[in-house]
Amino acid sequence: MAVECGPIPYTLVNVNRLHEFVLSRDELYHAGYVLGQLSSRDLDMKRRCASCLRVVKPNNGRFPKQRQAPTAVSGTAPAARQYSTVAQPAPSPAFDIDAVFEQLTVSATRKKTEEPKAPIMRCRFHPGQRWTCCRNYTHSKACTSSEWHTPRLYAAGELEMNWVFYTTPSAPAPVQFAAAVVIDCEMGTAESGDSELIRVSVVDFFTRDILVDKLVMPDVKLAHYNTRYSGISKPMMDDALRRGNCFLGRDEARMAVLRLVGPNTVVVGHAGNQDLTSLRWIHPLVIDTLCIEKKRRKFDQGTNNDTSAAPRRKNSGPQQPKEEDKDDGDEAPAKREAGMSLKALASEKLNRQIQTKGKGHDSVEDALATRDLLLWYMTHPAAH
């Protein structure tokens, strides 16, 4: 039977218990949360290829590596040897048929091994605007490839304006903010390749009331709505816009959230760094159920290890990095570990099925699942 957690009383005990799960600044940083304005280096990591739209990291396939020309060695040449001016007869070379045959064999083998290798195609794309190039679907395999990426040209200040982050502001004393909220967002993909906010949902942690749930009309054109995952389509967005029932851009969506959230409000999410980044929002008090699960797994692995193996581990050589510690581009590393998704944890801990096949995600459903998952962690403390 699925676990359904109803409203819980707003008491000092529950608030203090909640604050025990708040991530420290160091934990936020390592979980991928933005803590300040992006540096020039951070902005460089946001640049994309104009053809395949992938992020082009500095010196990673952006352009061909320049081979250095051999430098001339300066200095005084060693003194020339003194040779006799008397002509010396040239020695007649001895003819060795075995040596000649061996030399020919080595030369032929070397030619085979020194054949140029096929270039690595780093950039794969469709040159047509809507795949008119090959008449295939949007997600079809690229029909064109290039050895090197083509950096997109950005207008002056374009990247900086798109990646400005806003910290939760203080408010006058009479304003009452929620004590704790749960947030979940859905994202589409802009024509530039960047992830773009298209829906935001906020739920009160204590009452389960839905405080915000609206589509967000992006400020930029979308390549696709990721309907399979987001559950949102273009007709849905057009209908919401026609009815005036959507936020116009991420700034309006963020301001709506900040009318409910103050600097002392606890914000809960699952891989919430993605949600806050989509809103360009920096908040000091965050609980991430993904981080809680990671901590529990590390603790379980530590307690299950045989202590007698510890001395041998000292001299066992360099340890191989875990799969979740490897960096692989845009995707959050912790999100890739088996059973760490919200869908998997809701099924395991709550016996609740969410994000069912064919329906896409529902950000309200996901927010409530995140909220109940946190309550499960609070009522099932890890053994110490």
TrEMBL record:
It comes from the Eukaryota. Keywords: Exonuclease, Hydrolase, Nuclease, rRNA processing. GO terms for biological process: ribosomal large subunit assembly; rRNA processing. GO terms for cellular component: nucleus. Residues 179-383 form the Exonuclease domain. This is Exonuclease domain-containing protein. It comes from Ophiocordyceps polyrhachis-furcata BCC 54312. Residues 300-365 are annotated as: Disordered. GO terms for molecular function: exonuclease activity; nucleic acid binding. The lineage of its organism: Eukaryota, Fungi, Dikarya, Ascomycota, Pezizomycotina. Exoribonuclease involved in ribosome biosynthesis. Involved in the processing of ITS1, the internal transcribed spacer localized between the 18S and 5.8S rRNAs. CDD domains: DEDDh_RNase.
